[in-house]
């Protein structure tokens, strides 16, 4: 994963803003729930309505979204990042 960028993996976005620091977010844009499209440099891009989010903290940078991307819980095991799926409470 590139330092200063990230990657889209299914319905998750994983970023590495600085070497050795990782963040994970659900890839659903908070504006309409559609999946974000890609990472461009230090921006997470949702083309559906023009939203842009920071790879550093998931914050809205531009567009129609009013909330940041939702963080996805994860753990690490050596150099493997394990994203935790939410448990169904019903």
Record the SSE blueprint.
Elements: E1 5-9, E2 12-18, E3 21-26, E4 38-40, E5 43-46, E6 51-54, E7 60-62, E8 74-77, E9 80-83
Antiparallel strand pairs: 1-2, 2-3, 4-5, 5-6, 6-7, 8-9
Care to describe what's here?
The chain is mainly β. It has no helices and 9 strands. The chain has strands at about 5-10, 10-20, 20-25, 40, 45, 50-55, 60, 75, 80-85. The strands form 3 sheets. It has a 4-stranded antiparallel β-sheet, with no helix packed on it. A 3-stranded antiparallel β-sheet has the order 1-2-3, with no helix packed on it. Strand 4 and strand 5 form a beta hairpin. The chain is globular and about 40 Å long. The protein starts with a strand and ends in a 7-residue tail after the last strand. The model has no long low-confidence stretch (mean pLDDT about 90).
Keywords:
0% helix, 9 strands, 4-stranded antiparallel sheet, 90 residues, 3-stranded antiparallel sheet, globular, mainly beta
């Amino acid at each position: 994963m590139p330092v200063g960028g990230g990657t889209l993996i299914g319905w998750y976005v994983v970023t590495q803003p600085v070497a050795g620091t990782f963040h994970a977010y659900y890839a659903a844009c908070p504006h309409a729930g559609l999946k974000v499209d890609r990472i461009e440099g230090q921006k997470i891009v949702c083309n559906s309505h023009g939203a842009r989010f920071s790879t550093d903290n998931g914050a809205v940078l531009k567009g129609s979204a009013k909330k940041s991307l939702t963080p996805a819980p994860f753990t690490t095991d050596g150099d493997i990042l394990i994203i935790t799926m939410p448990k169904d409470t019903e």
